[in-house]
Amino acid sequence: MHGFRLDEVAVTRGPATLLARINACIPAGRCTAVMGASGAGKTTMLRLLSRLTEPTTGRVLLDGVPIAELDVLALRRRVGLVAQAPVLLADRVLDEVRVGRPDLPDDRAGELLARVGLAPRFATRATAELSGGEAQRLCLARSLAVEPEILLLDEPTSALDGPTATVIGALVHEHVSTGGTVVLVSHDHGLIGSVAERVLLLEHGHLVADRTA
After folding, report:
1. Which of 4, 13, 42, 127 is the most exposed place for a label (fewest CB within 10 A)?
2. What's the pLDDT tens digit per position in 155-169?
3. Hey, what domains does the chain have and what are their CATH numbers?
4. 19 vs 42: CA distance, rounded Å
5. pTM to 2 decimals?
């Protein structure tokens, strides 16, 4: 597996440049952190990798194939994006975990909730009752249910306290140790230091550093 490659990728919106001629490789089987100040282009990069945003110029490749040539549904099965602002699609927690896998058994759904630090009692709760941090972790469980090869995590600990945030670090380690790839956007330097092997640093849409963590 080769991972992602961005070739001369730029994203503009009217007069604003969100990303400017980015050239970068994101290797498979590792955790790569994307860092930078607010507005630097970090979330735009994650959206590019999942084809929620298309490049204005340049191209994004996955394993040497332009992702624009891949079937979108097939790509989404391979690439799971967990956004900073959770978007819940079902009324009940258990149904939310099953959004992408309607046939998922109850016990497997419970295992996924446990992996993201949610107790079994959450399975029957209404999603409208969840806190921001709980909803964030539920979206992660929903993504894990389809067994994605690649996880794109946008500020996954932003709504979590310290002890709960360690669950995310353990999950990233586990995903990478089994051959998966993680692209992590975070301001949590402790988390990045514990899980990332490479760091891409963005500044005003420009890639200013590409280094080992």
Report:
1. 13
2. 998 878 777 788 999
3. 4-212 (3.40.50.300)
4. 9
5. 0.93
